[in-house]
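Exam revision sheet. Question 4 asks you to relate a sequence to its structure. Input first:
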Amino acid sequence: MSVLAAIAVLALLIVVHELGHFLAARFQGIHVNRFSIGFGPILWKYQGPQTEYALRAIPLGGFVGFPDDDPDSDIPPQDPNLLKNRPILDRAIVISAGVIANLLFAYLVFVAQFATVGVPQDFSPQPGILVPQVLSETSPAGQAGLRSGDVILAANGERFGTEDGAVEQLVGLIQDSPRQPIDFMVQRGDRQLNLTVTPEVGDDGKPVIGVQLQRNGVLEYRRASNVFELFSFAAREFQGMLLRTVQGFAMLITNFSEMAGQVAGPVKIVEQGAGLAQANITSLFPFTAIISINLAIINILPLPALDGGQLAFLLVEAFRGKPLPERLQENVMQTGLVLLLGLGVFLIVRDTSQLEIFQDLLQ
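Answer key, structure tokens:
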């Protein structure tokens, strides 16, 4: 059920994104003839009065189609309600609406979380140190088998209790142990594991194992006092997560060789979401929000086949006073789509091979 919940979240976010494009076009009276989730062969479709709604075989996104690109369309090329015949601002609204929809949805997810679960009140510490994220499968921690959601109970025989300085104590041990193995006792669900991690020296000269660490414990919640407190908490959480995600993308771009291992495909995202849902179903709220924000930022990048790439074409058109040759735009977009699908397939194969069930078969 946790896997199905994670898949449902991913599918919902794709629908939200494409629905943003669709509604932005429809509200402006622009013709839309296709609304598809996925790419490739059609598994299911419904023909509405104006639009074909379809579910396709390759689950790597979706698209909203316009009759501008359909040679079989009976709409005259000069129709003012074709997307290509609209002013630049109208087209920019349609193209950017998917990103806006994902950002707005992420904020509403936080509103729903604080409305149902409550707003944070007190923190009850528990023994051990939580690993909220393993930064890369190729990091020392990833290679040793440490996973996001694990709780480190002890290192080299020294147990970590509920004291405030436990995280600093472990960081100090790591930094004092360059290229020296550290024996961890780890709690994973109802299992205790013994793992050995050997810190490597990073670019800054400090030993690292490639994880985030935070105090282990349980947040206690209370009902929001009023609607203003509810929206305020949601806005603060949304702003913090958006800022951290943007910083993460900046680090990925500026230090791609070391950060590339953090790029995850649909399989990895579902695996992480399923793990969070299994541990605590309410964790699906922040999981949904952060994936929605990631989808928004990825799509606004000025890359071919993404919304940002189309906005870049519009910007060039605004400066030139006329669009780039249609053939050139089609070639760039088709090349970008092939590369994007190729990356998606690569990530699916890579992440699938790293699933625990396949790792167990190889051992």
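Marking note for examiners. Residues 90-118+224-331 form one domain.
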